[in-house]
Amino acid sequence: MALLEVEDLSVTFARRGQRAVHAVDGVSFSVDAGEVVGLVGESGCGKSVTSLAIMGLLPKQPGLRVGGKAVFDGTDLLQLDDRSRRDIRGRDIAMIFQDPLSSLNPVIPIGLQVTEVLARHRGMKGETAAKEAAALLDRVGIPDPKRRLKEYPHQLSGGMRQRALIAMAVACQPRLLIADEPTTALDVTIQAQILELLKELVRDSGTALLMITHDLGVVAGMVDTVNVLYGGRVVETARRRPLFRQPRHPYTVGLLGSVPRLDAGRGEKLNPIPGSVRDLLPWPDGCAFAPRCARRIDECVGEPPELVHAHDGRSYRCVNPEPLPGMVPAPREEESA
Ligand SMILES: Nc1ncnc2c1ncn2[C@@H]1O[C@H](COP(=O)(O)OP(=O)(O)OP(=O)(O)O)[C@@H](O)[C@H]1O
Ligand SMILES: [Mg+2]
After folding, report:
1. Residue 298 located in a structural domain
2. Which of 40-44, 56-60, 323-327 has the lowest mean pLDDT?
3. Residue 13 belongs to domain spanning
4. What keywords were assigned to this record (predicted)?
5. pLDDT band for position 261 (50/70/90)?
6. What is the pLDDT of residue 170?
7. How many angstroms is it from 70 CA to the middle of ligand 2?
8. Ligand 1 test: best mutation among 49, 97, 181, most atoms within 8 Å of CB?
9. I want to staple 181 with a disulfide (CB 3.0 to 4.6 A). Which of 98, 104, 156, 264 is the partner?
10. Closest Cα to atom 14, ligand 1: which residue?
11. DSSP E strands, the chain
């Protein structure tokens, strides 16, 4: 059984007098112990809302509706009361956010914030906690940890703060770490170091990682299984290699085509996907990606495409997927008539 099994998760924000936003619309995916799973897609496709729903951290606003299941080790997180959820959060599941400054308390020294986690989740106190906190900072590559522990978040650089947050996340030895764009706010060299660090942690401790990103470079470097999200639904799931080698969903093809490549010839243009995520068809009326899709056919509109489970273990939600090399596309009715 998977460590985390998200089943038909949906999140709707309804406001009086406004159209309801189906931010997450029947998302299913799973994460096995020790596995790195990616949630990928353009801005606004529902990545953060998915992770916040799993963690029970969505803003409690009127009109919020959450449906489906998020089963962690046999327990549906969505059915837990706030207290039990807080216990799991931190002890079994930790989360790293995009903006480290907003996740650290500005008026408490870093050291105290780390030792607090150690006290709450591992029962460590005093000298033992202080020693472990320094060891953790050292492990995430913060130089001179003893001195850093006394400093406040604003005294650390962006990269150091993100490292401190990772230290806090691993302090409780979680079984699942959810990282929502952990490196987008950082410059490229620090980005690479942080990703390396996360990879190392996963390898050494067997922690499962749910990596949320819009950056396919990040996916290529570390993810085992990729879930591509569009308009609040998973449109393709595959292992990393087959996904990069032979994407089947036209949206995945578009995402890959919009990534700069070093081996591209001079003057060769990037192929951004035409239109924007805002040009989507509501899923009940057909494929949300149809308005931007180069492979659109009549069948794409009318009803939502079913999820197809291909024999190679991947699945995609598309009625006219990218053919595999060597595959002869079936003749369309009007062509054969
Ligand atoms: N509290 C909220 N109230 C109403 N709508 C919301 C709320 N939070 C998110 N949304 C909407 O839900 C959709 C999905 O947002 P989400 O933050 O999950 O996108 P994302 O994939 O994480 O994008 P990004 O890559 O920009 O972080 C968006 O259309 C967003 O406007
Ligand atoms: Mg987000």
Report:
1. no
2. 323-327
3. 1-259
4. ATP-binding, Cell membrane, Membrane, Nucleotide-binding, Transport
5. low
6. 83
7. 19
8. 49
9. 98
10. 46
11. 4-13, 21-31, 36-40, 64-72, 75-76, 93-96, 176-180, 208-213, 225-230, 233-239, 308-309, 315-316
